[in-house]
Every structure is written in C-alpha cells, then in structure tokens.
Design a protein that fits this description.
Number of helices: 5
Order of helices and strands: EHEHEHEHEH
Radius of gyration: 13 Å
Structural class: alpha/beta
Distance between the termini: 21 Å
Number of strands: 5
Oligomer: single chain
Length: about 120
Amino acid sequence: MKTILIVDDDDLLREMLGEVLRMEGYDVTEATDGKTALKLAKKKTFDVVTLDVALEKEDGRALVDPIRELQPKAKIYLLTGMDEPELKSKAKHHADGHFSKAQPMEKLLAKIASGGAK
C-alpha cells in the first residue's frame, strides 16, 4: 500500500484529498505546516508527498529539498492555486511535478496510481 503525506494548511482541501486517497486504498498522513511535515518525514517512509505552495507561514517549494533528503525515493508534487505559467516563472524547484488546485483531482490521482512516471 502506497503511503502519502499531504501538506496543506487548507483544512477542507487537505481533508477532502485525504479522504479521496483513503477511498482509493492509500495510507494517508496529513500535516498543516512544514515543521510538522518534516517531523513526519523523519519518522515514516512516504511514497508520495503533496506540498501546498502557499502555506500560511512558508512557501511549500522551500520544503522540497529538505523532504527529498529525508525521503529520497518519494515522488513530491506541488499543489497550487497559481496557473502553470506563473508557477514555472517562480524560483526553480526540484519537485516531480505540480498540479493546479483548479485541475480535476483525477490528474493527481492518475499520477499517484502510475507510480509517478513522468
């Protein structure tokens, strides 16, 4: 069973995504901020990590490298309200992909189910 860490400070979105992923059979852990996400990443191995770009107190992109160090095999995806050109114009990140929160959730689910193939 794939393990997934969802990092998002939007309670409704995080809980909804978590519930959908649990219904798909995934083991889901949730975090509301970067500090909690890093603590969890030290304790448990995750196959997939989703990071909200606009966390309340930090930019989720700044968490990609520290999480990658702790979880080198995990696929890391950024979730954002920005449109794709705006996201690509921002600082370079080392995530495995990014998804707009406005996109259908099926795109993210398909990427997770496929093992994150690019």
